[in-house]
Amino acid sequence: MFSPQGPSLRELAVQALSSVERGYDLLAPKFDHTPFRTPDAILDATTDVLRPLGPFGAGLDVCCGTGAGMRVLEPLCAGRITGVDFSGGMLARAAEAHPDAEWVRADVRALPCTAEFDLAVTFGALGHLLPAERPAIFSGVHRALRPGGLFAFPLGAPPPLASAQYWALLGFDAAMRVRNAVWRPPFVMYYRTCPLGAVRDDLTAAGFTVTTAPMTRLGRRADGTPRYRLVLARKEADGPG
Ligand SMILES: C[S@@+](CC[C@H](N)C(=O)[O-])C[C@H]1O[C@@H](n2cnc3c(N)ncnc32)[C@H](O)[C@@H]1O
């Protein structure tokens, strides 16, 4: 699962006993060698879906980490490109890799941007945000977009009950709940808190018009449904700011 350049088990354990922000500061130098960095296949499938919806002006990567989302924003956005994250360690790596982009250190639960972007994306971060926090985050992204702007992110189909992955994710979330009940600071990371229906409801409540598109390059499940869909949340051109 991890390459030889990735973190050791001990380093991962120390990270998991820290806060999310501190944990990512610690992991940052080796993050790109972990499976937590969004794979290029998912980024490229996102670009495939977004390309016909562009061109876009300014782009924002929400919870940018070391800058994986730049692979999507750079070819699609003609304007400035910005990543926002609360981990200074992750942002430092991102700035090294993409010196021409702008990097903002902020907690996305209080996103400090207003009507500045035409496209916002997020990868691999929704599990770090409690469902109760989603309305504030989605409202912040809505505020950060210009009228007509688009917020897009991939969402995997839930694994079937009979699959090993279903039970692995259930087990991970259960272990994380126990960890957070007995240890401070909490490390919020849950795999099963972002079902499409709930995410769609929260986006709609934040003012977005929501559709989804299959990410065909990422394949289909045994029942023929797509393994991943791209959620497309549009801020209406003539809607409330
Ligand atoms: C799994 S990493 C994903 C990084 C990158 N988007 C990628 O796909 O490779 C999650 C990132 O979310 C950031 N993050 C989590 N909660 C955050 C918050 N409330 N505000 C800002 N950043 C946050 C972490 O610091 C970390 O860099």
Describe what this molecule looks like in 3D.
This protein is α/β, with parallel strands linked by helices. The chain folds into two domains: 37-158 and 195-235, Vaccinia Virus protein VP39 (Rossmann fold), CATH 3.40.50; 159-187. Helices cover 35% and strands 19% of the residues. It has helices spanning 9-16, 20-27, 40-50, 70-76, 88-97, 134-144, 164-182, 196-205; strands at 59-62, 81-85, 102-105, 117-122, 145-156, 208-214, 228-235. The protein has a seven-stranded mixed sheet with strand order 3-2-1-4-5-7-6, with helices on both faces. Helix 6 packs across helix 8. The longest helix has 19 residues, at 164-182. The protein binds S-adenosylmethionine. The site of S-adenosylmethionine has 21 residues, from helix 2. S-adenosylmethionine binds at residues 20, 24, 36-38, 63-65, 68-69, 85-87, 90, 107-109, 123-125, 128.
